[in-house]
Amino acid sequence: MTTMLSSDLPLPKIGRGKVRDIYAVDDDRLLLVTTDRISAFDVVMAETIPMKGAVLTQISAYWFRKLAGAVPHHMISADADEIIREVPALKPHRADILGRAMLCKRTTVFPIECVIRGYIAGSAWKEYARSGTLAGEQLAAGLTESARLEPAIFSPATKAETGHDENITIARMREVVGDEVAITLERMTREVYALGDKLSREQGIIIADTKFEFGRDKDGRIILIDEVMTPDSSRFWAVDAYKPGQPQPSFDKQPLRDYLDAERRAGRWNGDAPAPPLPARVVEATSRRYLEAYRRVTGQELKT
Questions:
Q1: What is the DSSP code string of 276-302?
Q2: C-alpha distances in Å from residue 198, one per residue of 105, 148, 254
Q3: Candidate CATH numbers 3.40.50.300, 3.40.50.920, 3.30.70.1400, 3.30.200.20; the one for domain 13-106
Q4: pTM value surpassing 0.85
Q5: Is the per-residue pLDDT at 163 higher than 70?
Q6: Of 75, 105, 197, 220, which is least packed with CB atoms within 10 Å of its CB?
Q7: Where would I find the H helices in the chain?
Q8: Residues forming a β-bridge with 26
């Protein structure tokens, strides 16, 4: 599989995120192409991470298949040959979409990141350690870093086009999307996370926290969209290495973050774009981490 920084397909490109290129197929369908771009600290790197796009697409496809019949979602297919049968114009570009493209239903997207936290870590732990709160709401006293939260905490955020998403209260979420939609989004978030938590534990992985997006399809149904329980949208920990009271090693872009942190501490990077060039060892270590996440979550080696 070739490494991809940016895609160029014979379809109208209607969006470009930090990682994904979005194409219009017709009025009802989109093609999501996950490149091998990678970002950290809100800066997109110049280098690509081999296999990253395929890992993110195929982990999402794995979860969408597992959710069939439980929660409605937008995936039509993540198989290149099935996609080409649906969109023949892509036949000359099979190598470009292999493993990394997903044909999806179009939706009207809700402007909310539906975050759910089964453990307290990352920005949630920083806020709690400072003030005992999460998004300004008081949590139980005496929690330690990486402690399990029972029940898991639903913690919505606004979707930011640039920079960090902002944690908001459920009351604020209700103001944005309405009471009925807010209740539905929380219920669906909890249902998807409960299934992911159960199945991932059987593979030796803890999904400490994750975020989902939802949209309304042409029939008015609220459905799960975008990526699902991937290393980019979730915090994965190994069950056999979990030790509460401290940070946990995770199956994501940690080698990249560690390198950039070291560059900042040494005064060689101020945290703004462009990022410093990535050594081959960092690129390789990050690629291995993503592939290991796929293997641990699905129980299989990635095949494309």
A1: PPPPHHHHHHHHHHHHHHHHHHHSS--
A2: 27, 15, 24
A3: 3.30.200.20
A4: yes
A5: no
A6: 220
A7: 52-67, 80-86, 94-97, 122-131, 170-177, 179-202, 254-265, 280-298
A8: none
